[in-house]
Amino acid sequence: MAEAVFHPPRRKRRVFESYESPFPVDVGGKDFRICQAEIINNNVIVRNPEDIEQLYNKGYFGKGILSRSRPVYSISDPSLVTKWQGANVNLPIITSKKYRRHVQWAKSILQEQGFDDCSVTKILENYTKPLELPFLEEDGAEQTGNSCNRKGPNTENTELPKQSSTDTGNAVALSSENQNNGYKKACLGGDPAFDSVACSCKARENTEPRSCEMIKSKECAPEYVLVQEEEEGSLCHEDDSARVQENLVKKEKLVCRRNPFRIFEYLQLSLEEAFFLVYALGCLSICYGEEPVTILKLWEIFSEVKPDFKTTYMAYHYFRSKGWVPKVGLKYGTDLLLYRKGPPFYHASYSVIAELVDDNFEGSLRRPLSWKCLSGLNRTTVNASKELMLCYLIRPSDMTEEEMSTPECMKKIKVQELIVSRWVSSRERSEQDEF
Predict the structure, then answer these.
(1) Contact by Cβ (8 Å): 44, 274
(2) Which of 339, 346, 350, 392 is flagged as catalytic?
(3) Which residue is catalytic, options 63, 332, 386, 392?
(4) Active site residue 237
(5) Is 378 in contact with 420 (CB distance < 8 Å)?
(6) Active site residue 339
(7) How far is Cα of residue 105 from the mean position of the Cα atoms in its chain?
(8) What pTM does this model have?
(9) Which end of the chain is more exposed for a tag (fewer CB within 10 A), N or C?
(10) 347 catalytically annotated
(11) Which residues, other chains included, contact 92 with Cβ-Cβ below 8 Å and sequence gap of 6+?
(12) Catalytic residue among 83, 216, 218, 347
């Protein structure tokens, strides 16, 4: 059988990031760190922001649970950020409709916890009341000592009128130090009802107490947002001789409030990616509950969760070792998609179907393909400017199931790639006529 010929990948037209490293390891060993992950509902989740940045930037492992690929989800509305860019604020800006939706979600959670409607209304009114923002002078010194204090009787300083977006004299910003102080005050207020609202996603303990404390402080601290709200004012016509008529005009303002229902962006790893980081690179520790899971136990657990895990992982390990970035190929009906360097730089070159066979290319195939099914799958792949590849993982005929129960069995596995192409008779005739 002929060896597969790799064609040059198709580069993306617009690339907005630089290539850092193929793996989240450092050759010198100075920046090497073991990232933490946990198994939740048969999925491997990374929650530490530093670990997320490390794993995705160096090798493009995993995807954001709320994003398309890179975990960069933000509650802030980009159109509103552009609209209010002159206000110079570093808080998320959302619409009042979106904010009311978060309040409604928090209300549902409190009701599920047994609070009556009167208590829920009182809790949310106190938690979502407008807050004051610290105003900065031109030299950067703060005019107010505390950040995001509760709103008093005078509410003028809590609202940012739309006309002030072009005024750069008094820039509005929230320093990270004051923001953390505000977080601590709000989170340590001692009100369990507030904690149940703000900490909608409780942090689970892991093996590192510092990382656990960081995650808990981040998830339990309130999130301050700027809500764009509308107020109604009155304007009179310039013609004084005419009858004075008042027209209601909608004015927009930004009000600082606490978000009662926080949404966190985490990194979700496929089972193949997670095991590769643990077994091949040794830069990831996976916990189930409070205990870290060993490599052999992970091999067993992942095989139970995904019956064909051994086959797909062998293919993943092989292509990763060859310098490709494999991603899940479910949307194209295959097991893997192969990228050069990473999805931000190139389109996927190949859609891969992995099969485990013996020396005679026989065995219980995971997905027997009829000619009709193979033709349709190949057409789908070609229409997406990719090539269909069959990856055969050849194991010795005398290999037992006991040997397959450990990842060391990969040392005896051979790999054969086969690229499927569609033969077009008219194109073949024209090429022969040229000769």
Answers:
(1) yes
(2) 339
(3) 386
(4) no
(5) yes
(6) yes
(7) 21
(8) 0.74
(9) C
(10) yes
(11) 74, 75, 76, 223, 225, 226
(12) 347
